[in-house]
Amino acid sequence: MRDAQVTPGGDRIRWIDIPGDAGRPARVYLHGLGASAGPYFTAAAVHPLLAGPRSLLLDLLGFGISDRPTDFGYTLEDHADAVATALRAADVGPVDLVGHSMGGAVAIVLAARHPELVARLVLVDANLDPVPLDPPRPGSSGIAAHTEEEFLAGGWRTVRDRVGPHWWSTMRLAGRAALHRTAVHLARGTTPTMRELLLDLPVPRHYLRPAADGPLPGEPELLAAGVAVVPVPDCGHNIMLDNPQAFAEATARALRVS
């Protein structure tokens, strides 16, 4: 495990660092809301189709093995800037960035704000648009439907019961203020939106989606802008866990042909 200070107050981001070929771009994996990169991405990072480059399985500030400051804003921009600081400390870049769900939204913002650090993007069923809070659902809208005071006072228990034991196994590791603030900002999105930022990025971009979900909203516009949208069979939102082989194949193709 390695770490880097990413805030003036001394808060540190930590990551699992898998050594690899220094002659190839490092690969950075970013987890989704309430997750942690190790449980979600270790099997993918060492899969024969994806192993080789140095790989950083990085936990965003507030989540997993990283610090959980309560004086951090937890906007998507804040997360992206903290990751950029960690990547510079790790002496990597430009990197191949693989981001799942909220991690994909952070990856888009990172590529827009720190273009020198990102070579290629692989987005895994990532958030592209603001999320309505009504009706609340598992995920960002269900968390953001509470005020921070309500959530910290016990609303988190409602979220725990709604998301179930699998997701809660990593969500319970998050700082509760971090989880709530991140969910609020993820549901609110960015200005311009993550989708608009993605359309304008000059780097190769692939978007992996569950095949069973059907076309993405606005998929023709994404395709016209050069974003390769790749349906992955036999999976739900957690593509890398539900169908590891297909995920590895799709990601390897994305990084090989880009």
TrEMBL record:
Organism, scientific name: Kitasatospora viridis
GO MF, any single term: catalytic activity
Superkingdom of origin organism: Bacteria
Protein name (record): Pimeloyl-ACP methyl ester carboxylesterase
Domain AB hydrolase-1, first and last residues per copy: 28-135
Stored InterPro entries: AB_hydrolase_1, AB_hydrolase_fold, AB_hydrolase_sf
GO annotation, cellular component aspect: membrane
Pfam family, one: Abhydrolase_1
